Write the structure tokens for this entry.
Amino acid sequence: MEALKRALRSGRPVALWHDPPQLRYLVEGPSGMEEFRIPADRTFTCLAREFPALAWFERQLAEVAALQRIGCADPKPLRDHGTPFPFATYDGLHEVPVGPVHAGVIEPGHFRFSVLGERIVNLEIRLGYQHRGVRAAFLGSSLERGRLLAERVGSEPVAHALCYARAVELIAGVEVPPYADRFRLVLLELERIFQHLGHLAGLFTDIGYAFAATQTGRVRAMVQAEIERLSGHRYARNAIVLGGVAARVDEDAARAARAKLSELAYDTSTYIAPVLRHPMVLDRLRYVGVVSEGQAHRLGLVGPTARASGIGRDLRSDEPSYRPFVPVTRVGGDVLSRAHVYLLEAQASFGLLDRFLRELPDGPTAVPVVAPDGEAWARIESARGELLYVVKAREQRVQAIEIVSPSFKNWPALEVAVRGGGLPDFPICNKSFDLSYADSDL
Amino acid sequence: MKRLLATLQTGRLTKRLDDLLALPASSPGIPLLRPERLSDEVRAALVALCPSGAFAEDGGEFRLDLAACVACGRCLRRHPDAIGEWRTLDVAVTRRDDLVQRVDLARGTLIEPSDPPPSRPELRLPTLGCRAVSAGNGGLDDSEIALAGNPYHDMSRFGFTLVASPRHADALLVTGPVSENMLPPLERTYHAMAAPKAVVAVGNEAIAGELFAGSPCVRGGVDRVLDVDVYVPGSPARPASILFGLLLLVGRVRQTLVGGQPRSQRPAPPRP
Ligand code: SF4
């Protein structure tokens, strides 16, 4: 326990789950990943008071593993709608309930604001509306069906399928062919551009800047057309298979995609980038929804959100194919900084794509995967941040699974970011994180 | 000034409906069973190769449920003789049965269903306010609804708009397999709408749960809890299919798929 606390003080929790009869903590510290196993059969000691980054994990444990919490600071349910949710109330403050059904076409979640006039004093988020029993659906599935499920966990099918596939391939001890390895990254970077431009288009819509929203939407639609051309699906579902990829793109197609993508990179720099220098846009986005670097550390935030608050961690730095790689970092921690990170990362991904598509290796597209009984985990830097799959296989079926999505880690950031801000700023704050409800509700 | 120029240079993006309904060459179309080519081996192979279990056989009947197809294209590639392909996106139907192809194995022919019912006359509205509710969808069907409003698809040219309040809505677009936790808000949204009102199940998950069918945390389809007027299949349902579904709802197009196969294709000619 002391060793765990020491690691948490200098690092960041990556995952916490119950693997009876023990709790398993993955902590990323300065010297890499460490795992801790703490026995727990009916109870466990909460550490969230000292390490707030564990708070949602501990709420999850109480529900998923039915473990009693000892010393719990925040005994609220997470996804369970059978027990009432004890929203914080304050004397003299007005309560504003928002959701689960929101004004736009987005996923459901409930936000409870305590406001003084127009100022937000406190926000509490209640999720769980999208809970479909994803973990249970995986159990006993064939490994192949697991890949289909992974593609449906959230709105980033490539990242989820890739993360799941890599975990299974680690169990099987196979290495995917060079072509597949490279083409998977092509799909991952296309998905990142598609997602990031989506966040930006949403922001521009929310501040009423139609020109920027339309141009961003236009480029995004054409990126999606390229995804479909290269993968056979608008979101590249079915393109990643266990052991490789489903099909090969020939040289002509790769060349055509490079030409189109370089046009789109030009459009991004010409039409979208200047928008973030426009005085009206600066006025709306700057100093709004601030998450400080200290808060980002304490909450264990990941992905573009953490990088916009000065934490330069991007898992792509660890992947040889990306080298040389420099994570995009901003220090403001506000909506504008997050918008900058989305834009700069999208632009960088266009560059990466050009390189990846130019160097597509020859050879087979996939190798057979026969997994012995065993366990492995894999991490992917998805568009929203760090994604983790821990897969346990037994007789070619999924015996246990743990999924930790970046959104699950970043939701608490929204509560912090809006505190003290105006209620009308909430939509752009929310859009600037653009978190997935489904992949944290599971 | 520069921006004005950029806007003008962009030109018109909106595509004609016919162009939108054509499937891009890289994506697999909808599989069509060729009853005369379904030997015992082929049927067994199809059941084994489909990753999502869209094929099934029992009681002397072989079935393909389009609402279970995840569009991987495997059956089309491996069994081009037994499986034809439909490459347009006019796939929405008013009746769940019209998404299931059924082959009578003794006779070796497709089972012909009756004509599909027309859409309800009170829904033949000049404009349609649509309220989208995600009930356990991963986010892609929702994304496709939003994209049906982008400049390329431009749903508003047909009089369709996405509205914020259910009070302003004529149609409820539901995505996802209907999670238990979203059931009460979904029903409340439906009851807040004024009559006449329609329900559209958007995407395979909303039609029959797709991969989440059987999960105890979901109902496994919108029609288990609300009367559904139009089913739009797809994994996820594509924006053009959604547009076609809305046009079908207001009675401006004729349904193409009957018993899971396009009318023009029945009886199915063998492929060369
Ligand atoms: S295309 Fe559809 S029906 Fe054919 S194998 Fe793939 S999922 Fe099954």
Remarks:
- Chain B touches chain A through 55 residues (CB under 8 Å).
- Helices of chain B lie at 2-10, 17-21, 40-49, 74-78, 140-147, 183-192, 204-208, 239-249.
- The radius of gyration of chain B is 19 Å.
- The first strand of chain B starts at residue 30 and ends at 33.
